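debug: dumping io for the single-chain case to check the tokenizer round-trip. Nothing else runs in this session.
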Amino acid sequence: MRKRLLGIAALAVGAALALSGCSGGSVTGNSGSSGGKTTITLWHNYTGPQATEVKKLIDEYNASQDTIEVQPQYAASSDQFDAKLINALKNDTGPDLVLGDSTPQQTGQVIETGKVLPLEDYLSSGSITKDNFTEGMLSTGAFNGKQYTLPTDIGDYAVVYNKQMFKDAGITDTPTTWAELAADAKKLTKGTTQYGAYLPIGTGEWPVFTWQSMLWSAGGDFLNDDNTKVEFNSDAGVKALTAWTDMLKDGSAYPQSLMTTSTNGAVPALTSKKAAMAITGAYDLSTIDSTLKKDNVGVFALPGIDKPAMNLGTNNSYLLKSTKAKQDASWKFMQWWLSPDTEAKWDINTGLLPANKKTSDNATWKKYLEDNPRLTAFADELEYAKARPSITAYGEVSAALSTQLQSAMLLKTSPEDALKAAEQKAQAALDKQ
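debug: decoded output
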């Protein structure tokens, strides 16, 4: 929520550009010109400070040249974005460019409309080529041998914790294994007023996204090598889910969901002091700092069960088929957005991390990392992070697993039964893709 260089603390997770009115993109038949400029409509789903920053940067781009006018629109929340986009494309009312789609694992459904533009020709020359990205990053936007999308934000997650609570509990070192984390959580728990940890409980992609790291760290696989068979219902899968449910059973983890449409639950768990630890991305640090104070907020890499593991998150951007002029204009803007200077501004002000490998050498970005050492934990995880499968059926597979993860986390179903039920529905989705 993404593999970047060590200097690129990639976090994921998620943001989006949006719709402030109906689309004026060329797909609608508009001419796409305004005062001699080529006008392109851009959809995103960024909210809060990220929405403010995206508008600021797009205004800067529009003022920097006199041939292209980018019109940003907030389209929908991340969980509704792709559905709204697909409907718009089917009705020829879609945008020219999508910036920061935070659910790239579901982009296959958008590509099935036939209106996403393959990027090979554009990537063969110009300032942005495939060499600007790691193989893991590119894999999130590659379908059937073609590159349809590019990561424009990178992310992963780590454990954010309350230093004072650790001190009060007599904990002097941060855990490096899940067993150590579980033991520390017990020390940090005070009845029902303070829990040691908040775990990702709820439906949606976030619990699946974070649990996959647990699965991998226990030695398991999500799907087989060619993405045709479910593999998460295994001994490793049961071990990974039991690691979470055991903490709920012993009362050291918060037992109900704090998730909303705008947060994964970690922020309210930490800022309300309901929990001493929570899994989240670097993009949430500023909000947590504002309540708990920066000096009291620490970060450590997500501990593994048998080995370290991390899930790579990306927000991906792509062009929609249109006139040649509007496609070229959209590509010019994307190259500008992915440039090290722009990425440094965007990521510093939003808590996201760069996708372009060259940004690691940008002076502004390097200085930012030096001044913010907590990002090291996120950055170090990128050395072993891998991405979710980019397949059309991923959304259905994830939904099937998410429902059963929640059932197990609410202690309504055993880990074994939950994963077995999830496998049946997930496999049916894979079989029909």
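debug: round-trip ok. Residues 85 and 247 are 39 Å apart (CA to CA).
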